[in-house]
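Notebook B, p. 112. Complex prediction, attempt 2.
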Amino acid sequence: MAVRIQSVAVQLDSTQVLRSVDLNVAAGEWVNVIGPNGAGKTTLLRAVLGLVPFRGSIDINGLRDRRRSARARHVAYVPQTPVIPPGMLVADYVLLGRTPHRGVFAAETAGDRRIAAEVLERLDLGGFSERTVQSLSGGERQRTVLARALAQQTEVVLLDEPTTALDLGHQQDVLELVETLRRERGLTVIATLHDLTLAARYGDRVAVLSGGRIAQCGRPAEVLTVETIAQHFGAHVRVIDDPEGPVIVPASAPVPEFEAAELAVLATSKESR
Amino acid sequence: MTDARTTGSSTWAGADTALQAADLRLRQLGIGAAAVVVAAVAGLTIGPVGISAHRVALELADALPGLAFDSGLIDAHAAIVREIRLPRVVLGLLVGATLSMSGATYQAAFRNPLADPYLLGIAAGAGLGATLAITANLGDGAGAFDPVPLAAFAGGLVAVTVSYVAGHLGGRSTASLILAGIAVASFLTACQTYVLQANSDAFRRIIAWILGRIATSGWSEPALMLPYFVVTAAIVMRYRRALDVLAVGDEEAAALGVNPRRVRLVVVLAASLAAAAAVSVSGLIGFVGIIVPHTVRLAFGASNRVVLPLSVLFGGAFMVLADLVARTVLSPAELPIGVVTAFLGAPFFVLVLRTSRREVW
């Protein structure tokens, strides 16, 4: 088991964000964590990264060393809205991923630079190394942030909404790339995703985070049902079966009779005016 | 020849060329060193008594241990170079280097282009300390011991400490720290204004202190500054890579295995100590801590590995040249150096801003 999350509870200020989260992710597996806004998806990732205090236990490949740098050699993070450092070149940005390996006071070794160059090449960013991160387009930036995470050479990669702010084509590009890299390198991936259809199409399992717990976890077709989505997201959807996984589309909401009656009165009064 | 690419293997497509990191290049270091040499030579040769540059060079070489040269200078001129101009140039280098380094460090630690060494109230604290010492008529030059710099130093450090503690009580973001600094600075400035109002007889001396000067009486001021500069520069330079990691924000820096708050605490304390020492010997020289690091960024790039060392060199050179202007344009009177740094620095900086194509903030 690459990541074993047991009875994890997180309290931020006075809000109990996570109550008791249990989730096991096998080595080489890709699990998408879904859930309504404010369910604590990002908080769960931050707990795995050791960025928020939590109760319970999170085990990453049996890692005993609790220091940040040790953890950063095993888990890499692609945040939802990465901070783009002003004036930093793509090469330097990707080399930041080597920080946990070289130590913060040491210079990069030739090996570090080679790894960073390989990652850039692999993500088709080879020609961008002398550009500033700021000057890249949204899709290129997202790949650059992914490149930094890959340069960390960790077994586990956490992706927080990796497709936000990307158009459909770039969403697919990024997720296909993650899938390819996962197969090539045996990466373990935990991602949060808003788009339920994408969550169904990529990855092995879907975990629904709701009420501070993992409410359901399993194959996309088992979890992504009309009932589950209505219960946890308060959304009215239709689920269309597709060979590549369920497709979730919004359905028009049923209007309660009382509300319909009032709306009808409103409509007639406007007409008569 | 087959490589990973042609065989279509799933291993990393071979990129044989390693990336170049943004380290300080020898050429950049050379340009910075040249600026220091040019400024120092100008500072040593230009003055009321004309002394040629090559004689100054020989006189300095003669002063080095193990070397003997005959500069051909008469004793009085040799004394002017060694005892009057050289200490002043060295102090200018130290103060300029310290304030620029301190500003560059604050900007990196707070990820804020407007940060300068006085962000957390050093100027206000030092100003109040100096004002109190001057109005209490302590600093009359009686004896070798001058309490004004000491009071300024203590005032500056107290202000930073209060800002840091208050900022951390109000939350842990850099914004709360900056706001605490503003509150502390406003409070101390109000205190200082009150003391100033109540002691109008000391007004001129206090204003003169605030506007700053690079004035030396022999080697005591440079000797006072040197250890602070050496120690704090060593700490800040050691953290230059950590400051580059901090550029991606606290959360991502932590995910990369760095403790951002510890890094910030160490470098801000070092930068504050350096700035307090500079302020205590030379008063409140503004603007240097902002324009020198930004000019370096615009010219050489944003990495702290480049910005920090080059800010030291260019800051020193800039201060020596500013001091040269301050003591020559109205000679024998001296302009306050704070006036010169802003008067020359502001137009120059606008020029740099307009001509640079780099985006550094």
